[in-house]
Specification:
Helix content is 70%, strand content 0%. The protein is built from seven helices and no strands. It is elongated and about 110 Å long.
């Protein structure tokens, strides 16, 4: 893969990941797929830049970050599913308090009108949802930890690109994504990561081929008679 294709794929991938965040609010699965494709293209672009600059850590660190991101998503999904399955009876009990006329058939639930006085009657048992709240908290913590790990490695990769290409925007994008990951726990971090991905796309398109290094020829020895 040559320099121009690496630059183009990386830039397009970053922009796709940026757009995917917006699409996820409208088409959740579509946004996820587009985001995944975008991250893979960024990874391919960084692989090409690593070869071009002869710096293997560019791709290695990016790969570590991508793997950490995938592991984090899988772990979060696993914790979510486990929480639901383990507390399925509590979930039914919780829903029966909101939908007193429910017969336990999940397909009929959307057609049943909830009790408007369920929470104000004084008989609502909130203790049955404690396990779900713990599960939700566990999912948030898992995502937070793996997001920090992933962006830590991604920042190291982008710092190397910044060093080799002399384009400081790569380093800025990596730092912004890492700060955003740390602040994800208070939601504003998601916006910072989003802006960091946009800066990454801009940085890719600012790349220019390295100028060849010209070694001056040593002066000719003086001619003696």
């Amino acid at each position: 893969m040559n320099f121009e294709s690496s630059k183009t794929l990386g830039g397009i991938g970053a922009l796709l990941a940026f757009i995917a965040f917006i699409l996820s609010f409208v088409f959740s699965y579509g946004g996820l797929v587009i985001g995944l494709v975008g991250f893979i293209l960024v990874l391919v672009g960084l692989r090409g830049l690593g070869d071009y600059y002869r710096e293997r850590n560019i791709f290695t660190n990016a790969m570590y970050g991508f793997v950490a991101l995938v592991i984090g998503i899988i772990t979060a999904v696993g914790v979510s599913v486990a929480t639901i399955l383990i507390n399925l009876d509590n979930l039914k009990s919780f829903l029966l308090q909101i939908y007193p006329g429910w017969n336990g058939d999940w397909s009929s639930l959307p057609n049943i009108t909830p009790d408007p006085n369920a929470f104000s009657s004084g008989n609502f048992d909130f203790s049955i949802i404690i396990a779900f709240l713990i599960g939700i908290l566990a999912v948030i913590v898992v995502i937070w930890i793996f997001a920090i790990i992933a962006t830590f490695f991604i920042r190291r990769s982008l710092n190397k690109v910044s060093e080799k290409s002399t384009i400081g925007l790569f380093g800025t994008a990596g730092l912004l994504m890492l700060i955003g990951a740390v602040l994800t726990i208070v939601l504003i971090g998601v916006f910072l990561v989003w802006i960091g991905v946009l800066l990454l796309g801009i940085a890719f398109f600012q790349l220019r081929p390295s100028e060849p290094v010209v070694t001056p020829m040593p002066p000719a020895p003086p001619v003696t008679a």
